[in-house]
Design goal:
Elements: H1 3-11, H2 18-31, H3 42-72, H4 79-89
Helix pairs in contact: 2-3, 3-4
Amino acid sequence: MSTSRSRYRQTRPSRITDDQIADLIYKLQQLIPNDHHRKGSSAKVLEETCSYVRSLQREVEDLSQRLSELLQSMDTNSPQAAIIRTLLMSP
């Protein structure tokens, strides 16, 4: 096999099959709570997944804000404050 052909095969993106896509959509449906997911097209599942992820992001932001406010209202040297700081710093 020539070098250029070998390089092409290594850099060419692999193709995903329809079965693999269907499997991934099924797995997404399993990850989303029942109140967020409905049976439907792949596009609908992806929309619902995006909606659910956005709601989780809002929840994280809200909880982070509440923890920050709590931290401001307590003794910064307390063990509880150290725990809150750790929670706010984790990824």
